[in-house]
Amino acid sequence: MDRALFQQEMIRSEIAEIVGEEYVSTRESDRLVYSTDWSWMPQMWLDRGKPLMTPDIIVHPGTPEEIAELTFVANKYKIPIVPWGGGSGTQGGALPMFGGILLDTKRMNRILEIDEVSLTATAEAGIIIQQLEWAVNERGLMFPHYAASSNCATLGGALAPRGTGTMSTKYGKAEDLVLSMEVVLPTGEIINTAPVPQHASGPDWFRLFLGSEGTFGIITKATVQLDYLPEARYMRAVLFKDMNAALEAGRRIMTRRLDPFVIRLYDHESTRTRVRKILGYEFDGSYMVIGFDGDPDIAKLQQQKALDICFELGAEDLGEEPGEKWWNHRYDFYYPPINLKLPWMYGTTETVTTYDKIQGVYYAIKEAVEGGFKEWNVRWIGHFSHWFHWGVMLYSRFIIEEPPQDAQEALRLHNRVWEAAMTAAIENGGMINEHHGVGVKLGRYMRRQFKDAWPFLLRLKDAIDPNHIMNPGKTGF
Amino acid sequence: MALENVILTVENCRYCLMCRHVAPVEKVTHRETLSPHGWALLIASQRRGLIDWNEDTVDAIYSAPDHGNSRVHCVTDQPLPEAIAAVRAEIAEQNLGPPIIYEINEALSTYGTPYATEEPGRISGQGEDALYVGDEAPYLWPRALEAAITLLRAIGVTPVTVGVGRSNGYLASSLGFPGTAARLARANLVDIREAGASRVIVLSPGDAFAFGQLWYERLGIDWPEDVQLVELVTLLDDRLAAGALRFSQARDDRPYAYVDPTHAIRVKDRHDRPRRLVEAVMPGKRVELLYRRERAHPVGSTALQFTKPDIAEKLTRARIEDAVSAGAQVLITEDPGTLYHLSRYAKEYGVEVAGLYELLAAHLARGRL
After folding, report:
1. In CATH, what is the architecture of A345-441?
2. pLDDT tens per residue, range A139-148
3. Which H or E run includes B162?
């Protein structure tokens, strides 16, 4: 008797009774496709012709009630539920590490309300972000989470790992744009957070689900903040010979609250390689794009003030065209074959820290990666893309063009490079990430990152998900 | 498509998710597998020996719409639909395809169409202007053909008809039978040559795509350089803009939507033309589908109507639901296949389907221009 098959069919039948036969699959094709997300590790594994860990059952629930029923099944049989939005995570957050039920949320994709008075939209969490954007654009509005993954990621997928979009510097991260959520807990309760996020009614438990990457529950619905489509959008580019001067310019622009919606600063190496390849510019220095939007008069004035700061710090004005071109092609960086792709080894070792530490973090990670892996001809590039009043995010990436061919050896090297970068970040006051999530890749660093607070998080996990069914192996749990 | 190009394309697309927002089949099935990256990953995995072509995996490959949304929205113009068609050809040749594709291929080989059991008609004569009739107009929506000829006469064009009842080759190519597709293409070319036409007018963007792109990309057949290929909506819109064509207003002030027909996204810069024509006749409010113009989805008039009728139906219903939610009560388009499929379900939603050519022909302004 094939015991595993017997068990699988018993569970599959039970799940089919909940969601309907059409929405449950054990097909080979589905199990293969859902075995890998956008992260390098599983892609490399498949690239080398090696099978991955696959989900046992793929489910497309249509309601939170169905998800609640699924949690009862998972708790009964002690099998994992792995939430899946767009599968666009770069840290393996949606990988079914231990098999089980892969729960694709994309069937729950309705827009429930667009409130043109309060400027909010309420939608089911499985909606593709760009599709939500198109819908609100019809009313002259925008959902200002313009992420590189907007074409493929879901709303829930933006919230669960605390994603960031291109315009976060003005409009905030995904976590700042959400007012309320409906969540199905691992124990099957369907709960709603308060209707607004800013209040004083007790602790801010609402935020527990932001960044939990499905380990504390599944976000099924969210009300998010919208904005009017801007009347004007002004883009400008400048070039700094000295990247540190550019960082200082960005700091002054932010701390003086000039409110750019984007500042994108590429380091010299990134300017020399990626900017040249994608945009076709041959600049020698650090290329910085600054954007202002909204009321034309105000935006123009803000832009002038920001440019004055840049010029005072030695920037060369590149004009509007290199700024506009960047804006119009900002996602081109992610299209094959011009993106970072196999057979290369690559990884985004992003971090975020305060302005006083950012240079230290930048050079520490650069030295750790470039110095530590010379024999692999590693390249390390970085740009600063999400700016806050207090600090900035460093989006750094390493590239090894000729990695080991053996899959296990390649994965080991990948982890070693990451270890060097994360150690350098943590030791110099940086975080292990800013918006790409933790997933399986960074889970091991959570204890080091949070030190004495980590046991508290473990107790929270035990309380919320006593059988640890939700997305096991992720965010350190 | 050459094997090395298939491999290059699927290697590029297998982990790229950047066209999901316009992927029609994934939108109606919600299955990641039935998305451009899913198809590419299956093909790449089959080549690596991770999967075989079996009933399940072949079913997935034959669930691709071959509608070009992925390619049109790809910054680097990855020809994934062409790669999938090439892989289907491999599958079909190995007799691993679904049984229905062999039946359709037999019909296409015998009659030039899956919609009838009679051989294609002869060309109607000789002349500079030829109207390509194809098989969808006569067998699925004959009114469009009559109206098109009326409209052409109104602008001083008396076309000969070619390709009467014969497919343009798209369906055979999409199902994985490039040989059949090439034979159909060549037979249509013979018609055009025998007619002595220097201009071929087509009724739909699907024909424009087949003749202008599919033939040379998938079949290696060039459209003749000395023959102009033009959509009827282009001709009519040009005449309308020049004041050489006028229409009376319809007595119908219901809100309406122009439905970009199947394959419209594959033809650049066409989207305003049919809209201007509709506006010349319809006095009501024009509403727009959310999935319109460059992001328009197909109805079930692709090969999916044969290989995956359930998906074809979902696609068609999704178009109608999109229009209904925009407030449309009348759906207008020109492509016979799109009209046929929309009309199968429209009544359930309380909306009416109207052919653009019939609408225009019925409201031709009389008298001197």
Report:
1. 2-Layer Sandwich (3.30)
2. 999 999 999 9
3. strand B160-164
Mean pLDDT of A377-385: 97
Judgement on whether residues B325 and B267 belong to the same structural domain of the protein:
yes
Is the pLDDT at A217 greater than 80? The verdict is yes
Q: Is the pLDDT of residue B369 over 80?
A: no
Residue in A with minimal Cα distance to B8: A337
Domain extent at residue B279: 244-362
Name the CATH topology of A3-104: 3.30.43
Nearest chain A Cα distance for residue B319, angstroms: 15
Q: Which residues in chain A touch residue B16, judged by CB atoms under 8 angstroms apart?
A: 334-336, 339
Asked whether residue B112 is domain-assigned, the answer is no
Cross-chain residue pair A87–B13, CB shorter than 8 Å: no
What's the domain count of chain B? 3
Cβ of A33 and B38 within 8 Å? Answer: yes
Residues B258 and B288 in one domain: yes
Q: Which of B219, B239, B259 is the last residue of a domain?
A: B239
ipTM: 0.96
Residue B106 in domain: no
Judged by CB atoms closer than 8 Å, whether chains meet at A36 and B41 is answered as yes
How does pLDDT run across B184-225, given as a tens digit for each residue? 999 999 999 999 999 999 999 999 999 999 999 999 999 999
B141 & B219 share domain: yes
Q: Domain containing B291 — which CATH number? A: 3.40.50.11810
Q: How confident is the model at residue B3 (pLDDT cuts 50, 70, 90)?
A: confident
pLDDT for the residue B367: 56
A390-422 pLDDT, tens digit per residue, is 999 999 999 999 999 999 999 999 999 999 999
Q: Which CATH code fits A111-228? A: 3.30.465.10
In a domain, B103, yes or no: no
Domain residue limits, chain A: 3-104, 111-228, 232-334, 345-441
Determine which of A21, A29, A279 to mutate to test the interface with B (most B C-beta atoms within 10 Å). Answer: A29
- Looking at the domain assignment, is residue B105 inside a domain? no
Distance CA A37, CA A45 (A): 12
